[in-house]
Amino acid sequence: MSPRTIVLTLFFLCPVLAFSQSLQLHYDLRHTIDPKYTRKNYPAFYFEYFISFDSAEGFIKPGAFLLKVQTELTGEKHNTGQFYMQVSQTFRFWKPKVFLQLQYNGGLGIAEPGAYGYYLTNAFSLGAAYPFRSKNMKAFFNAYISYKYTDFKKPSHDMISAFFWLLFFSNYSINFSGNLVFLTENRNHGDGLTNNLSGKKFLFYGDPQIWFRLIKGFSAGTRLNLFYHILRENNSFQAYPTIGVRYQF
């Protein structure tokens, strides 16, 4: 069943509490910040589709559905160089608002003509999520912890946890949001590049961002992409800012 079919099915089953879509265009400044290790600045598109349901009734109580798509234009003449997708759904069978969460991550790396492309290896997660918010509805949070299976040639079994926040200021004209993700992963993926390695490595990713509303639907802002053990194998931390525009509809 496709993500679209799932969303439409749930739409007719439950009254909607929250719905949003956003399209972001960023210019990533990592070459300006780190020219020794990054060869260019580049544009990137981010699309997010989020829908949250009133899950108070019924045996299966749906929570939130999220679809995130990221396309980085890192190729020659800013052709697509990488595509990433994340899909998650929460639900519960009980009254307390702690949800089961199912999640999929995957994508493609698209190389220059004559070179080899690569996969962003499929990963599947199952765990528990806890969403909560402030009484004045100006702060929203979500925390989850899950078991993660990554389908390398030598599969990796890990724990992953994340914390999301969304804060509103100045009568909702400014918002500060982001996601912090912590996980482990096998060093040995079962391929020729890693078959002499052993043990686990710790990985971290974050994307704090701030947006200033310009006119209805449009905002301008910045995003800070944070990495540890994701772009490089050595024990170094990377922080790359962007400048961007966003349209919510």
Describe this structure in words.
This protein is mainly beta and 249 residues long. It has a single domain, classed as Porin (Beta Barrel). Helices cover 6% and strands 61% of the residues. It has two helices and 13 strands; from the N terminus they run H-E-H-E-E-E-E-E-E-E-E-E-E-E-E. Strands 1, 2, 3, 4, 5, 6, 7, 8, 9, 10, 11, 12 and 13 form a 13-stranded antiparallel β-sheet that branches. The longest helix is centred in the N-terminal third of the chain and has 11 residues. It is globular and about 50 Å long. It starts with a helix and ends with a strand. The N terminus is likely disordered.
State the gist of this model:
The protein has helices at 3-13, 30-33, and strands spanning 16-28, 42-53, 61-72, 82-92, 99-109, 118-133, 139-150, 156-169, 174-186, 200-206, 209-215, 218-228, 237-248.
Characteristic key phrases:
61% strand, 6% helix, 2 helices, Porin, mainly beta, 13-stranded antiparallel beta sheet, 249 residues
CATH topology, anyone? Porin
Strand content: over 45%
CATH class: Mainly Beta
The low-confidence runs, each spanning 5 or more residues with pLDDT under 50, are 1-17
Gyration radius, rounded = 19 Å
Amino- and carboxy-terminal Cα gap: 25 Å
Class by alpha and beta content: mainly beta
Tell me the overall shape: globular
Q: What average pLDDT do the residues reach?
A: 90
CATH homologous superfamily caption: monomeric porin ompg
Total number of distinct structural domains:
1
Sheet with the most strands, sense and barrel status = 13 strands, antiparallel
Overall number of strands: 13
* CATH-level-2 architecture: Beta Barrel
* Tally of contiguous helical segments: 2
Output the helix-strand order.
HEHEEEEEEEEEEEE
